[in-house]
């Protein structure tokens, strides 16, 4: 059993403020998205699927059937997807909503 | 949740479930701010799914702040080495965030571990990661702010001083802690960390839990 009170005391006010701010009625919009660090990998399958379809199956071929991917598959596809998007000079829709 | 998300009514569903959970606890006479949203109910599961879909920008900014701090720290280390003219092999590893062992369970300590040192390292790491979270506040999605506002109003009407604890429970138990311990399930990293790093992360998240579990402490809090 170890006391953990210094940490709590030092942050009580900041955490209270944080909880207060995130639970207030929003009066301003969120900042623009920032560049994503290289080591952060997203599996936004909906976004990937949409773009793949728009690219007329250029990468994976026929995607008419439902796509079910394991995380490692999605990871590989994302890398290829980014390559193609960069070649085309198009923005990468990493922030697209991903239905769960 | 998938269908509601597609049809643009996920926020309404979450508000309904939150209200339902509170009213149900009230009806069953088990309503306590400290236990709200803790159970594995349908509302909790739906809320977790909702968070995965809506909170990515906040997660990204949190990680970006951590990454920025790590880069800055690396740069300072290099400058110091240049000034001294001594080249020292820089140790880089996946657990660079954790300098030393954070374990504070006496039954898990190695021979070379010092309990006091580990505790201080744990507090420091908790503080460091918490700072990244607080710095990312402006990226907290507006949709979720509205949901949190609903939670605050519902709780404040019943327990005027317990709103921070309820909001903290919601945010940390359902959003931040799971994302940090199992980042792969939130789509943040290709795979989850190994068991050693995960244990350290669990200890950090336990430290954070102290905030909302004991937000109005009148007694000493102990972490094991």
Q: Descriptors for this entry?
A:
heterodimer; A: 100 residues; mainly alpha; disordered C terminus; B: mainly alpha; GTPase Activation - p120GAP, domain 1
Structural description of this entry:
- The complex is a heterodimer of chains A (100) and B (224).
- With 100 residues, chain A is an all-alpha fold.
- Helices cover 46% and strands 2% of the residues of chain A.
- Chain A has helices spanning 5-22, 45-54, 71-88; one strand spanning 2-3.
- In chain A, helix 2 packs across helix 3.
- Chain B has a single domain (2-213), classed as GTPase Activation - p120GAP, domain 1.
- Chain B is 63% helix and 1% strand.
- The radius of gyration of chain B is 20 Å and the shape is globular.
- The chains are: A mainly alpha (100), B mainly alpha (224).
- Chains A and B meet through strand 1, helix 1 and helix 3 of A and helix 1, helix 3, helix 4, helix 5 and helix 6 of B.
Outline of this structure?
The complex is a heterodimer of chains A (about 100) and B (about 220). Chain A has about 100 residues and is mainly α.
The major beta sheet of chain A can be summarized as:
none
**Helix share of residues of chain A?**
40-55%
Oligomeric assembly: heterodimer
In DSSP terms (H or I, runs of 4 or more residues), the helix count of chain A works out at 3
Can you tell me the CATH superfamily of chain B? GTPase Activation - p120gap, domain 1
How far apart are the termini of chain A?
A: 40 Å
Class by helix and strand content of chain A?
A: mainly alpha
Total strand segments of chain B: 1
Low-confidence stretches of chain B: 78-84, 86-96, 215-224
User: What Rg of chain B do the Cα atoms give?
Assistant: 20 Å
Report the mean per-residue pLDDT of chain B as an integer.
71
Question: Helicity range of the residues of chain B?
Answer: 55-70%
**Shape of chain B, please?**
globular
Radius of gyration of chain A: 20 Å
What can be said about the biggest beta sheet of chain B?
none
Outline type of chain A? flat
Percent strand of chain A: under 5%
Unreliable stretches of chain A: 39-46, 55-67, 93-100
Name given to the CATH architecture of chain B? Orthogonal Bundle
